[in-house]
Amino acid sequence: MKYAILVGDGMADYPVEELGGKTPLHVARTPHMDWLARHGELGLVKTIPEGFTPGSEIANLSILGYDPVRYYKGRGPLEAASLGLDLKPDDLAFRCNLVTLRGRGRDAVMEDFSAGHITDAEAGELIDALNRELSTAEIRFHCGVSYRHVLVWAKAVQTFPAMETLELKPPHDIIGKRVSPYLEKASHEKAAMDRLVSLMTDSQNLLERHPVNVARGKRGLSPANSIWLWGQGRFPQMITLKERFGIEGAMISAVHLLKGIGILAGLRALEVPGATGYFDTNYEGKAAYALSSLEEGDFVFVHVEAPDEAGHMGDARLKVRAIETFDQKIVGPILEGMASQGRFKLLLLPDHCTPISVRTHTADPVPYVLYSSDDHSGLTKWEGFWETEAQRSGIYLERGEELIERLLASPNVVG
Questions:
Q1: Where are the domains of the chain?
Q2: pTM exceeds 0.85 for this model
Q3: 360-383 pLDDT per residue, tens
Q4: Which helix (H) or strand (E) holds 83?
Q5: What's the fold here for domain 2-72+237-408?
Q6: What is the DSSP string of 208-266?
Q7: What residues form DSSP beta bridges with 3?
Q8: Which sign, positive or negative, has the C-alpha torsion 52, 57, 61, 66?
């Protein structure tokens, strides 16, 4: 038996007036996802436990069977794992976005959490400059992809004990808002926050005059004129999927967060040429690598970021197209390829909602479909794969971690 999890990041949504009061997932032409819904188990699942910020890190830990209450230590260390970084017990890893701020000081506004989806090459030059000018014996920047990078602060827990527990807002949650209210903390946290703010301010002084940003400005592109630090934490101790279920497999994603989760779960993080984490990603390559990986292993997890990006942009039509592309170039080929390989089970879902109306993640339950080639019970009564159909099914999973247990149906699940 072969197993696959296909995640269209942020596909779920609320009804959109522009789309006739339907969601992008409902409006999109998705014959392969709809086929799965009509032949499999359709339901709703809560991937974000109560009390957690609805981030991709929380949702995808849940989908892979790891209770965030037990395993989540911060987004930074998950991305650090994808870069092969070695954190010492008192080190903290931060997610480090290259962002576009409009204005300076207390009037600065978060204009773009991705600095116009800056290219890898441009970002690499900026990270090199940050290391030359701002790194110390304790602080080091590590280059990721596009706007997504990592800062490791050695011995941070010893130097600034409050730094580990600071509530730092993800930049995609404060688009169009003044940033200063999110940088003010209680007195016992003030020294830690002041040090982070000082580092971010120093980055602005360096980046705004860097040749990369001068050139971007001349081309009418958003400058990467600041860093934004968030998601800090230490490495979690995670039992692998092989130890839990006796399976081995691969993670396919352009996003370092997902690669890091996969690595900590014992999966191979495959590098697909042309995978960008954006609308121009190599969809065909991801599908081909997924099917090839299943010739060697038992399991593959395929993640596509594009629908989430459209949600953050607040562009309903673009989100519909991203969902349709996911169905055409990922779901269809993988479904057909797995069928030709023999017996298989496939789980399809968004990790969380990214509604057009709010342009950020929400904790709403999301639709899922679980299909098994061994199930010959015939057509269900469901019309297709979208939110209201999943709700109508009456199946609701309170814990996201239940999904992988249903997929793998293993008696050897470790708590």
A1: 2-72+237-408, 81-233
A2: no
A3: 999 999 999 999 999 888 788 899
A4: none
A5: Alkaline Phosphatase, subunit A (3.40.720)
A6: TTSHHHHHHHHTTPPP--EEEEEEEEPPP----HHHHHS--EEEE-S-HHHHHHHHHTT
A7: 299, 345
A8: negative
